[in-house]
């Protein structure tokens, strides 16, 4: 597997978009909040030089099998409050030592392969080199499937002193109006 890191990617043939869609398609019906970017949003992120792209290609076939994004410019991340981090972690924020992982996508047939671990290892190395921290948003469905613990285990192989901390949560409530004639 070949790891590639770059600041900008043009997805002319749709290879990156296809991987992203395949990896996260099931979240469309498993999470209330939209977790998949629209095509135009995805293209903007891929071209945004404030956001680093991490990719893994199968060395034998050249196929893109994993893709992730990470940035320490929290203003580049829609719906994330830079002010939260400025208040909670003033020194890290002022020195741009807080990284946000936008997504980590692995092709369904490569899940369980070393691809995700390769991405996490490199992202951890980048964050660790600056003595920083990284943040990732995991929906409740994936949280129940222990994604946060899985990320921690992979990252801890490279950063043994790593500590996981839940920063926040958002809960969606539904209010139904039963049919009055049914009573």
From TrEMBL:
Gene Ontology MF terms: acyltransferase activity, transferring groups other than amino-acyl groups
Residue intervals of the N-acetyltransferase domain: 46-147
Transmembrane segments: none
EC number(s) given by UniProt: 2.3.1.-
Keywords linked to the UniProt accession: Acyltransferase, Transferase
Superkingdom classification of source: Bacteria
SUPFAM superfamilies: Acyl-CoA N-acyltransferases (Nat) (SSF55729)
Name used for this protein in its record: GNAT family N-acetyltransferase
Organism: Kineosporia babensis
């Amino acid at each position: 597997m070949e790891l590639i890191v770059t600041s900008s990617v043009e997805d002319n043939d749709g290879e990156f978009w296809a991987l992203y869609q395949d990896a996260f398609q099931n979240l469309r019906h498993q999470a209330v909040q939209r977790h998949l970017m629209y095509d135009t949003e995805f293209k903007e992120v891929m071209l945004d030089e404030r956001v680093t792209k991490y990719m893994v290609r199968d060395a034998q076939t050249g196929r893109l099998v994993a893709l992730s994004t990470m940035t320490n410019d929290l203003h580049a991340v829609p719906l994330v409050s830079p002010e939260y981090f400025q208040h909670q972690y003033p020194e890290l924020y002022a020195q741009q030592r807080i990284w946000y992982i936008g997504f980590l996508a692995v092709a369904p047939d490569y899940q369980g392969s070393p691809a995700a671990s390769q991405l996490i290892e490199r992202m951890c190395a980048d964050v660790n080199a600056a003595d920083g921290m990284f943040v990732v948003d995991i929906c409740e469905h994936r949280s129940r499937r222990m994604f946060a613990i899985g990320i921690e285990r992979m990252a801890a192989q490279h950063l043994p002193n790593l500590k996981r901390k839940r920063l926040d949560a958002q809960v969606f409530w539904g209010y139904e109006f039963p049919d009055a004639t049914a009573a």
